[in-house]
Structures are given as structure tokens and as C-alpha cells.
């Protein structure tokens, strides 16, 4: 279910992307969002994207991974990440979920 958000006048809305959720180990959450046309009032939208360089990798920042906060996402190369992202159908947050490390009970091994 979509929830309308009414922004304050003269403000910016910043949507956090999936890569930032991975890097922050889930501290900052990306959100599914969409924009709809308002036939009564003019609106200016500028979409900008920033991502890591090819040839590097992405995963939770080492400074955010501890015994109490284990990694929640896999570490993979940027090329592999985008190849996987763009090869999937648009099904919500399915690729972010594919990046998630499955946590098990203490008696079981962690699986990816």
C-alpha cells in the first residue's frame, strides 16, 4: 500500500538507495518510492544517482560490523552487483533481499 507524503514547502526529499543500506549494514534503510503527477500544482523533480566505481566492491562498512552487529549483506564486486540488479525483474526489493545474509540460530551455521 502506498502512503502519500506531503513534503514541507521549499524542502528536499532524499531517498536512500539500496547500496547505502548495504554499506551501513542496514542502519539506513532504502525505501520503495514513486512520484505521481499533481494536476493542480507545479512540481520540480530532479533525480540524481551516485554509485561506487567499477573495480571496487560493496558490502557493510567494516567499522559497522562487530560481534554484536554481524554483517547483514554479502560483499561483492560493483560490476557483479549491477549485473545481478539489472538482470532481475522489478519485484520490489527482491535484489536487496538476495544480497541479505540469512541469519540462523546459534547452533546452525550462517548461510548466504
Automatic annotation (TrEMBL):
Classification via SUPFAM superfamilies: Clavaminate synthase-like
Domain of life of the source: Eukaryota
Record keywords: Iron, Metal-binding, Vitamin C
GO terms, molecular function: L-ascorbic acid binding; metal ion binding
InterPro entries given in the database record: IPNS-like_FE2OG_OXY (IPR044861), IPNS-like_sf (IPR027443), Plant_2OG-oxidoreductases (IPR050295)
Chain ranges of the Isopenicillin N synthase-like Fe(2+) 2OG dioxygenase domain: 2-52
Entry-linked PANTHER family: OXOGLUTARATE/IRON-DEPENDENT DIOXYGENASE (PTHR47991)
Protein name as catalogued: Isopenicillin N synthase-like Fe(2+) 2OG dioxygenase domain-containing protein
Organism of derivation: Acacia crassicarpa
